[in-house]
Design goal:
Layout lengths: L10 H19 L7 E6 L6 H11 L2 E6 L3 H9 L8 E5 H9 L3 E2 L14 H4 L8 E2 L2 E2 L2 E7 L2 E4 L22 E4 L2 H11 L12 H14 E5 L2 H10 L4 E3 L4 H9 L4 E4 L5 E11 L5 H11 L2 H11 L2 E2 L13 E3 L6 H13 L10
Parallel strand pairs: 1-2, 1-3, 9-10, 9-11, 13-15
Antiparallel strand pairs: 3-13, 4-13, 5-6, 7-13, 7-14, 8-11, 8-12
Length: about 350
Amino acid sequence: MQLPGLRSFGQAGVWQRLAALALALTAAAGPVQAVETLRVLAWPGYADADIVKAFEKRMHVAVQVTVVSSDENLWDRVSARNGADFDVFAVNTAELKRYVDQGLSVPLDLANIPNAAAQLPRFRDRNAIPNLVRDSKLYALPYTYSEMGIIYDRRQVKEAPTSIRSLWDPRYKGRVLAFDTSGHNFSIAALALGKNPFRIDDASYPAVVEQLIALRRNVLTFYSLPEEAVELFRDNKAALLFANYGTQQVQQLKNAGADIGYAIPREGALAWLDCWTVTRGAKNKALAEAWINYMLEKPVSHALTERQGLANTVESSDRDDQAMKIIWLEPVEDVNRRAALWGRIVSGDQPVALGRH
Protein backbone atom coordinates (compact mmCIF):
# COMPACT_ATOMS: atom_id res chain seq x y z
CA MET A 1 0.00 0.00 0.00
CA GLN A 2 1.32 3.44 -0.92
CA LEU A 3 0.52 6.45 1.23
CA PRO A 4 -1.06 9.39 -0.66
CA GLY A 5 1.40 11.97 -1.88
CA LEU A 6 4.43 9.72 -1.58
CA ARG A 7 6.07 8.66 -4.85
CA SER A 8 7.29 5.10 -5.09
CA PHE A 9 11.08 4.87 -5.23
CA GLY A 10 11.79 1.89 -2.98
CA GLN A 11 12.02 1.54 0.81
CA ALA A 12 15.68 2.53 0.98
CA GLY A 13 14.98 5.61 -1.08
CA VAL A 14 12.14 6.67 1.19
CA TRP A 15 14.31 6.61 4.31
CA GLN A 16 17.13 8.41 2.53
CA ARG A 17 14.77 11.21 1.50
CA LEU A 18 13.30 11.43 5.04
CA ALA A 19 16.76 11.53 6.59
CA ALA A 20 17.78 14.30 4.20
CA LEU A 21 14.62 16.25 5.02
CA ALA A 22 15.24 15.93 8.79
CA LEU A 23 18.82 17.13 8.32
CA ALA A 24 17.65 20.10 6.29
CA LEU A 25 15.07 21.09 8.91
CA THR A 26 17.66 20.83 11.69
CA ALA A 27 20.05 23.04 9.78
CA ALA A 28 17.31 25.60 9.12
CA ALA A 29 16.46 25.74 12.81
CA GLY A 30 20.02 26.72 13.66
CA PRO A 31 22.30 25.25 16.38
CA VAL A 32 20.53 23.35 19.17
CA GLN A 33 21.12 24.87 22.59
CA ALA A 34 22.30 22.37 25.20
CA VAL A 35 20.01 22.07 28.22
CA GLU A 36 21.75 22.73 31.52
CA THR A 37 21.92 19.70 33.82
CA LEU A 38 21.73 19.75 37.62
CA ARG A 39 23.51 16.75 39.15
CA VAL A 40 21.84 15.58 42.36
CA LEU A 41 23.19 12.96 44.76
CA ALA A 42 20.43 11.74 47.07
CA TRP A 43 19.12 8.97 49.28
CA PRO A 44 16.28 6.66 48.17
CA GLY A 45 12.93 8.44 48.02
CA TYR A 46 14.35 11.98 48.16
CA ALA A 47 13.91 12.76 44.46
CA ASP A 48 10.96 10.91 42.94
CA ALA A 49 10.53 11.16 39.17
CA ASP A 50 7.45 13.40 39.26
CA ILE A 51 9.08 15.74 41.77
CA VAL A 52 12.14 16.00 39.55
CA LYS A 53 10.07 16.52 36.42
CA ALA A 54 8.20 19.46 37.96
CA PHE A 55 11.52 21.13 38.85
CA GLU A 56 12.87 20.53 35.34
CA LYS A 57 9.78 22.10 33.78
CA ARG A 58 9.87 25.11 36.08
CA MET A 59 13.59 25.80 35.70
CA HIS A 60 13.95 24.64 32.07
CA VAL A 61 16.81 22.34 32.98
CA ALA A 62 17.55 18.62 33.14
CA VAL A 63 18.14 16.89 36.47
CA GLN A 64 20.36 13.86 36.82
CA VAL A 65 19.71 11.97 40.07
CA THR A 66 22.16 9.45 41.51
CA VAL A 67 21.05 7.40 44.52
CA VAL A 68 23.49 6.42 47.28
CA SER A 69 23.25 3.45 49.64
CA SER A 70 25.55 4.32 52.56
CA ASP A 71 27.60 7.12 54.09
CA GLU A 72 30.72 5.44 52.71
CA ASN A 73 29.21 5.34 49.23
CA LEU A 74 28.29 9.03 49.51
CA TRP A 75 31.81 10.00 50.57
CA ASP A 76 33.41 7.99 47.76
CA ARG A 77 31.24 9.66 45.13
CA VAL A 78 31.63 13.24 46.34
CA SER A 79 35.32 13.06 47.19
CA ALA A 80 36.36 11.13 44.06
CA ARG A 81 37.09 14.30 42.06
CA ASN A 82 36.85 16.96 44.75
CA GLY A 83 33.13 17.38 44.27
CA ALA A 84 33.34 17.89 40.51
CA ASP A 85 30.84 15.13 39.65
CA PHE A 86 27.83 16.56 41.52
CA ASP A 87 26.23 19.92 42.27
CA VAL A 88 24.08 19.25 45.33
CA PHE A 89 23.76 16.32 47.72
CA ALA A 90 21.99 15.15 50.87
CA VAL A 91 24.09 14.28 53.92
CA ASN A 92 23.48 13.87 57.64
CA THR A 93 24.81 16.46 60.05
CA ALA A 94 27.44 14.16 61.56
CA GLU A 95 28.94 13.34 58.15
CA LEU A 96 28.67 16.96 57.00
CA LYS A 97 31.64 17.94 59.15
CA ARG A 98 34.24 16.14 57.05
CA TYR A 99 32.84 17.55 53.81
CA VAL A 100 33.26 21.03 55.25
CA ASP A 101 36.69 20.12 56.65
CA GLN A 102 37.84 19.03 53.20
CA GLY A 103 36.30 21.99 51.41
CA LEU A 104 33.89 19.71 49.49
CA SER A 105 30.83 21.70 50.68
CA VAL A 106 30.54 25.44 50.20
CA PRO A 107 28.53 28.07 52.12
CA LEU A 108 24.94 28.69 51.05
CA ASP A 109 23.43 31.98 50.00
CA LEU A 110 20.10 32.18 51.86
CA ALA A 111 18.92 34.88 49.47
CA ASN A 112 18.51 32.05 46.94
CA ILE A 113 16.64 29.85 49.42
CA PRO A 114 13.71 31.94 50.73
CA ASN A 115 11.76 28.83 51.81
CA ALA A 116 14.29 28.34 54.61
CA ALA A 117 12.46 31.10 56.48
CA ALA A 118 9.37 28.87 56.68
CA GLN A 119 11.09 25.93 58.37
CA LEU A 120 9.98 24.94 61.86
CA PRO A 121 11.62 26.96 64.66
CA ARG A 122 13.87 24.10 65.82
CA PHE A 123 15.40 23.93 62.33
CA ARG A 124 15.73 27.70 61.96
CA ASP A 125 17.95 27.75 65.05
CA ARG A 126 20.86 26.69 62.89
CA ASN A 127 23.63 27.53 65.33
CA ALA A 128 22.13 24.98 67.71
CA ILE A 129 22.41 22.17 65.15
CA PRO A 130 25.96 20.74 65.06
CA ASN A 131 28.05 21.29 61.93
CA LEU A 132 25.58 23.43 59.95
CA VAL A 133 27.45 26.67 60.65
CA ARG A 134 31.16 27.37 60.63
CA ASP A 135 32.79 30.78 60.94
CA SER A 136 29.32 32.34 60.72
CA LYS A 137 28.72 30.68 57.34
CA LEU A 138 25.83 28.29 56.71
CA TYR A 139 26.83 25.12 54.85
CA ALA A 140 23.60 23.09 54.78
CA LEU A 141 19.88 23.19 55.48
CA PRO A 142 17.91 20.40 57.25
CA TYR A 143 15.51 18.41 55.09
CA THR A 144 14.34 15.27 56.93
CA TYR A 145 15.16 13.09 59.91
CA SER A 146 14.49 9.77 61.58
CA GLU A 147 15.69 7.59 64.42
CA MET A 148 17.02 4.11 63.61
CA GLY A 149 14.89 1.72 65.62
CA ILE A 150 14.26 -2.01 65.42
CA ILE A 151 11.50 -3.41 63.20
CA TYR A 152 10.13 -6.77 64.28
CA ASP A 153 7.73 -9.36 62.86
CA ARG A 154 4.78 -9.55 65.25
CA ARG A 155 4.14 -13.20 64.38
CA GLN A 156 7.62 -14.29 65.47
CA VAL A 157 8.41 -11.72 68.14
CA LYS A 158 5.51 -11.54 70.57
CA GLU A 159 6.91 -8.72 72.72
CA ALA A 160 8.61 -5.61 71.40
CA PRO A 161 12.42 -5.76 71.69
CA THR A 162 13.61 -3.60 74.56
CA SER A 163 17.35 -3.61 73.90
CA ILE A 164 19.71 -3.16 70.97
CA ARG A 165 21.20 -6.46 72.12
CA SER A 166 18.18 -8.24 70.65
CA LEU A 167 20.04 -8.17 67.33
CA TRP A 168 22.48 -10.62 68.91
CA ASP A 169 19.79 -12.84 70.47
CA PRO A 170 20.55 -16.48 69.49
CA ARG A 171 16.81 -17.17 69.27
CA TYR A 172 16.77 -15.12 66.06
CA LYS A 173 19.96 -16.47 64.51
CA GLY A 174 19.68 -16.35 60.73
CA ARG A 175 16.52 -14.21 60.93
CA VAL A 176 18.12 -10.80 61.57
CA LEU A 177 18.70 -8.18 58.88
CA ALA A 178 21.34 -5.51 59.52
CA PHE A 179 22.59 -2.56 57.49
CA ASP A 180 25.86 -2.79 55.57
CA THR A 181 27.81 0.13 56.95
CA SER A 182 30.85 0.58 59.14
CA GLY A 183 29.89 3.75 60.96
CA HIS A 184 26.51 2.85 62.42
CA ASN A 185 27.41 -0.78 63.10
CA PHE A 186 30.40 0.16 65.23
CA SER A 187 28.13 2.61 67.05
CA ILE A 188 25.37 0.10 67.83
CA ALA A 189 27.97 -2.48 68.91
CA ALA A 190 29.42 0.12 71.28
CA LEU A 191 25.92 0.86 72.59
CA ALA A 192 25.36 -2.84 73.20
CA LEU A 193 28.52 -2.87 75.31
CA GLY A 194 27.54 0.26 77.23
CA LYS A 195 30.19 2.42 75.55
CA ASN A 196 30.13 5.80 73.81
CA PRO A 197 28.88 5.08 70.26
CA PHE A 198 30.92 7.87 68.68
CA ARG A 199 34.13 7.76 70.73
CA ILE A 200 35.53 4.23 70.82
CA ASP A 201 38.95 4.33 72.48
CA ASP A 202 41.85 2.05 71.56
CA ALA A 203 41.31 -0.16 74.59
CA SER A 204 37.67 -0.78 73.61
CA TYR A 205 38.20 -1.54 69.93
CA PRO A 206 38.92 -5.29 70.32
CA ALA A 207 35.70 -5.83 72.30
CA VAL A 208 33.63 -3.85 69.79
CA VAL A 209 35.13 -5.81 66.89
CA GLU A 210 34.32 -9.09 68.66
CA GLN A 211 30.76 -7.83 69.08
CA LEU A 212 30.49 -7.11 65.36
CA ILE A 213 31.87 -10.52 64.44
CA ALA A 214 29.16 -12.01 66.65
CA LEU A 215 26.58 -9.85 64.83
CA ARG A 216 27.83 -11.06 61.46
CA ARG A 217 27.34 -14.63 62.63
CA ASN A 218 23.80 -13.93 63.86
CA VAL A 219 22.41 -12.09 60.84
CA LEU A 220 20.90 -13.54 57.71
CA THR A 221 22.57 -10.82 55.64
CA PHE A 222 23.36 -7.11 55.44
CA TYR A 223 21.23 -4.90 53.18
CA SER A 224 21.99 -1.54 51.56
CA LEU A 225 18.76 -0.05 50.17
CA PRO A 226 15.36 0.08 51.92
CA GLU A 227 13.59 -1.67 49.03
CA GLU A 228 16.12 -4.49 49.27
CA ALA A 229 15.35 -4.84 52.98
CA VAL A 230 11.62 -5.16 52.25
CA GLU A 231 12.25 -8.06 49.87
CA LEU A 232 14.67 -9.78 52.23
CA PHE A 233 12.35 -9.34 55.20
CA ARG A 234 9.36 -10.73 53.31
CA ASP A 235 11.02 -13.52 51.35
CA ASN A 236 13.16 -14.88 54.21
CA LYS A 237 10.68 -14.47 57.06
CA ALA A 238 13.07 -12.28 59.04
CA ALA A 239 12.25 -11.65 62.68
CA LEU A 240 14.25 -8.47 63.34
CA LEU A 241 15.55 -5.64 61.18
CA PHE A 242 17.85 -2.82 62.17
CA ALA A 243 16.09 0.11 60.50
CA ASN A 244 18.85 2.34 59.16
CA TYR A 245 16.24 4.29 57.17
CA GLY A 246 13.92 4.47 60.17
CA THR A 247 10.27 5.27 59.62
CA GLN A 248 10.77 5.12 55.85
CA GLN A 249 11.26 1.36 56.18
CA VAL A 250 8.32 1.04 58.56
CA GLN A 251 6.04 2.56 55.94
CA GLN A 252 7.48 0.48 53.09
CA LEU A 253 7.01 -2.77 54.99
CA LYS A 254 3.46 -1.88 56.01
CA ASN A 255 2.68 -1.00 52.39
CA ALA A 256 4.00 -4.45 51.47
CA GLY A 257 1.53 -6.04 53.88
CA ALA A 258 3.99 -7.01 56.61
CA ASP A 259 2.64 -7.35 60.16
CA ILE A 260 5.36 -5.42 61.97
CA GLY A 261 6.09 -3.43 65.08
CA TYR A 262 8.69 -0.73 65.66
CA ALA A 263 10.71 -0.36 68.86
CA ILE A 264 13.19 2.12 70.29
CA PRO A 265 15.81 0.29 72.40
CA ARG A 266 16.31 1.32 76.02
CA GLU A 267 19.93 2.22 75.17
CA GLY A 268 18.50 4.77 72.74
CA ALA A 269 18.24 4.90 68.96
CA LEU A 270 20.81 6.53 66.73
CA ALA A 271 19.11 9.27 64.74
CA TRP A 272 20.09 11.18 61.63
CA LEU A 273 19.19 14.64 60.39
CA ASP A 274 19.72 14.85 56.64
CA CYS A 275 20.51 18.18 55.01
CA TRP A 276 21.05 19.53 51.52
CA THR A 277 24.42 21.09 50.72
CA VAL A 278 26.21 22.34 47.59
CA THR A 279 29.52 20.94 46.35
CA ARG A 280 32.60 22.97 45.57
CA GLY A 281 32.33 21.58 42.03
CA ALA A 282 28.82 22.89 41.39
CA LYS A 283 28.61 24.23 37.84
CA ASN A 284 25.77 26.58 38.73
CA LYS A 285 25.59 27.27 42.46
CA ALA A 286 22.42 29.35 42.17
CA LEU A 287 20.66 26.47 40.40
CA ALA A 288 21.79 24.06 43.13
CA GLU A 289 20.38 26.45 45.73
CA ALA A 290 17.14 26.66 43.74
CA TRP A 291 16.91 22.88 44.11
CA ILE A 292 17.27 23.17 47.90
CA ASN A 293 14.63 25.89 47.94
CA TYR A 294 12.32 23.64 45.92
CA MET A 295 12.88 20.73 48.32
CA LEU A 296 11.71 23.00 51.16
CA GLU A 297 8.42 23.88 49.48
CA LYS A 298 5.56 22.53 51.57
CA PRO A 299 4.02 20.35 48.83
CA VAL A 300 7.40 18.76 48.07
CA SER A 301 8.27 18.17 51.72
CA HIS A 302 4.76 16.88 52.36
CA ALA A 303 5.16 14.39 49.50
CA LEU A 304 8.32 13.06 51.17
CA THR A 305 6.41 12.47 54.41
CA GLU A 306 3.34 11.03 52.74
CA ARG A 307 5.26 8.67 50.46
CA GLN A 308 8.26 7.75 52.56
CA GLY A 309 6.97 8.09 56.12
CA LEU A 310 9.80 10.48 57.01
CA ALA A 311 9.36 13.66 59.02
CA ASN A 312 10.12 16.91 57.21
CA THR A 313 11.33 20.28 58.46
CA VAL A 314 8.48 22.55 57.36
CA GLU A 315 5.39 20.79 58.77
CA SER A 316 4.57 19.99 62.38
CA SER A 317 4.14 16.28 63.02
CA ASP A 318 2.38 14.18 65.61
CA ARG A 319 5.62 12.37 66.46
CA ASP A 320 6.52 12.60 70.13
CA ASP A 321 10.28 12.89 69.72
CA GLN A 322 10.69 13.90 73.35
CA ALA A 323 9.24 10.57 74.52
CA MET A 324 11.90 8.62 72.60
CA LYS A 325 15.51 8.30 73.62
CA ILE A 326 17.14 9.70 70.50
CA ILE A 327 20.91 9.84 70.08
CA TRP A 328 21.69 12.31 67.32
CA LEU A 329 24.60 11.20 65.18
CA GLU A 330 27.97 12.79 65.84
CA PRO A 331 31.30 12.56 64.00
CA VAL A 332 33.12 9.40 65.06
CA GLU A 333 36.65 8.92 66.37
CA ASP A 334 38.10 7.43 63.16
CA VAL A 335 36.00 6.96 60.00
CA ASN A 336 38.77 5.23 58.05
CA ARG A 337 39.60 2.80 60.84
CA ARG A 338 35.97 1.75 61.16
CA ALA A 339 35.62 1.29 57.41
CA ALA A 340 38.80 -0.79 57.09
CA LEU A 341 37.87 -3.04 59.99
CA TRP A 342 34.28 -3.44 58.80
CA GLY A 343 35.49 -4.62 55.40
CA ARG A 344 37.54 -7.33 57.10
CA ILE A 345 34.74 -8.32 59.47
CA VAL A 346 32.22 -8.76 56.65
CA SER A 347 34.73 -10.73 54.58
CA GLY A 348 35.11 -13.21 57.46
CA ASP A 349 38.56 -12.38 58.80
CA GLN A 350 39.46 -13.96 62.11
CA PRO A 351 39.17 -11.69 65.16
CA VAL A 352 42.87 -11.83 65.99
CA ALA A 353 44.34 -8.31 65.90
CA LEU A 354 41.31 -6.90 64.08
CA GLY A 355 40.79 -4.36 66.82
CA ARG A 356 44.34 -3.07 66.68
CA HIS A 357 46.07 -0.68 64.32
